[in-house]
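=== Structure Prediction Worksheet ===
Name of assembly: unnamed complex
Input type: mixed (protein and possibly other molecules)
Chain count: two
Listed entries:
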Amino acid sequence: MRTLISLAVASALGFTPLLFTSQSLAADNTANSDQAKIERLQQKIDELSEELADLDTRVNKTERHTALDRITFSGDFRTKVHSLHYRDVTWNPGIKMNFDDFGRRAMAGEYGDPMDPTSPLGKMMAANPDMAAAFMGGQLSGVMPWALGSTNTYDIDNDLFYTTRLRLDIKANVWENVNFAGRLSMYKNWGDSTGVQVFDSWRSFSMDGTNSGNTSGDWLRVERAYFDWKNIGGSEFYLSIGRRPSTYGPPSNIRENEQRGGTPSGHLVHFNFDGATLGYNLGEITGIEGQVVRFCYGQGFESQWGNGELFGNLVTEDTHLGGFNIDVINDGNHFVQLTLFGAKDINDGFKGSMAFPNELAAIFAPTMYQDMQKFDSFNFVTRVQPSGVIGDMFLGGLGYVYESDEDFKAFASLGWTRAESNGNAGMFGGLLTDATFTGKLSADGSELMMVPLAAESDAAHDGYGVYIGMQMPAPYGKFGLEYNYGSKYWSPFTQAQDDPIGSKLATRGHVVEAYYLFEVNPRMFIKLAGLYYDYEYTGSGTPVGAPVKVDDVMAGSAVSLLPVVDTAVDLNASLTVKF
Amino acid sequence: MMKTTHSIGLGLLLGLILGSSAMAADGGNPKKGKHLYKKECKTCHSKGDAAGELTPMSKTMAQWDRFFEKDMHKGKPEVFQKLSEQELKDVQQFLYDHAADSDQPQTCG
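=== Predicted Assembly ===
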């Protein structure tokens, strides 16, 4: 437009013939010079207009993309190979019999005539002549172990065990003070998507709280999904409800080479919970950076829905958890965390699925075992639910993480767990106590079965755990060392840790870990690690059953329904990419 | 066991071949940058300040890089001019590491 005006003005003025005087020449040069400037400016304007039009088109696309794509994805992908070596694995199956109760019932004729070889008691005595002789000789009284097989000790080497873990993190802004976060995760071992494992340990039990840390196949699970409603009513309160970010908490995130991965202390809680958190950013008042007080609530077990409640014969209770999780300070160099939780109405297990081990069928289900022997490599998959409430639990902890400006990290965490048994027990025991068994006739009166009568003890037990470690910059990356110890009754909720041998932080005994992280680039690293487990007591990772010395099981003086590991080594190498 | 040794050896070799410093592009120290950010930036850019609240989350990683490469706090250049080149790198690294699209700690609230 300006060009047209310029041309019009120029033509209006310039078509008049000029006298070639020096003055007119100078004026002509000036005009030419101005004209050139105008043309250059005009060219610049045209170029800018073109660029603006191009930018406008691009920004429109970006705006549209932002408006329509309300979710942002990030994540990580890990390939890992383990070499697993178990030493002195011992299986000495047995139960603790209450021979006083059993004898009283037997003498009352409840199990039939002991002299009649066809009676339930007669058949049982015929099948167990040594026990029968000892019992008739009065050598068995009170509560005593009854071995249901011979002690067998062996080593296991799994030289190559590959896993793949995919985690897709989801974020979405709902409103200026409301956001949604989630994580979909797939964790599988190579060549297996059955999603269920033969029940040879509590680790192998597929259940809601631990699925994210247990290889379960090639499908994505919702590991976490929750919203945060911040600054409620202009205050420093926030509310968060959903499947909680309750895994990979500090300081357990350091060995994962990632930032804090969850809210609660990873030393005490590494478990997928559904629940809510009401938090208050106290630091805004005290001036202490990162200071947050949180009240957390969750439900770990639903006792009715889905459990056949319409038959009206349920004896379990909902398990509710509640407590405080306090970040005392979190300023980038110092992190102090206080934890105090309680769990009301712990049951003797969770809902879950397992491939039933034929070994247990041989002991407890002889009739079924008759047919199962015909299908040696078949294990029926079954849904399991607990059989009753066994007590209450409490957890407490104090953790400290130091990070220097030069990226040196050191941490120490002290944990405490307390289990208060109510005297009840299921097949695998009560709360940190064993079940005592007695005899009971089957419904048709043809078979004498062993059933749990009560817990051996209703005492409360305190457990203690220590977790210390460091990570330092090293050539090409980082070097880390960690050590943790758990006492006889140590029972944290860390079963969702994805260590194949079992959650290292749940170990009743000692674990040492050393690792080297090679930083390929800021979003990709290789980790080489070695873990050595030395179990002192049985039952790591479960509060069900009395912990007994591993040495006693190996010596045959203590029994265990599940195999017991003495020591184990996990050598592993992994490659992780973050995107 | 031998296979394991091979696997670990391969991993070690890869690490040595591919390994590079974990520090970000410009060699800034994010922790030192945080101290400087609190001291130099938050004095004018806290909540309610006339200059407007500014946190690392105010920009993306690329936007922070552009800010330090091109803008250099041109609204008040003396703020950047009094900082050394290394200090600027430290602040840039901190803001980059905690930008809106960076990896964030995963906690509720």
